Amino acid sequence: MEKHEQSFDSFLENFKKTVSKLGFKNSTQKDYLLKILYFTDKHLSAEELVKISKDKYKIDMGIATVYRAVKFFEELNIIKSLDVGDGAKRYELNLSLHHDHMICTSCSKIIEFNDDVIEEQQEVVAKSNKFVLKDHIMTIYGICEDCQ
Ligand SMILES: [Zn+2]
Ligand SMILES: [Zn+2]
Fold first, then answer.
1. Options 3.30.300.30, 1.10.10.10, 1.20.1050.10, 3.20.20.70; which CATH number does 3-93 get?
2. Which of the chain's termini has less CB crowding within 10 Å, N or C?
């Protein structure tokens, strides 16, 4: 879901402020990774991030650099990762409205969905266990229509 309320410029500015407040250094490479993740509606792997930065922005980034960057973003809660089951995590910015995922275990396709009944039922289940729900990760693994 690529509908962002914030423009990329203000998103990047906020990110840079946070990073320098925490005492870390900014890097152009990180900026480009965020740009790619901002302007895609896909969930991208580290390999795909390397490829897109090279093809689209002519930036040569090693895979290790990308892994370090996404780890950093994840620690700051700027991105979320998805375990697709093929060993390569997929990443997306943590900006869009809450949604859950369905993952095809055959072709690794990711479908986003939002279901009010599921959302509400989780509140009910949490409450009946005297549990305060703060967040959840819901991923349905299965076979997509094309692969059936
Ligand atoms: Zn499939
Ligand atoms: Zn998603």
1. 1.10.10.10
2. C
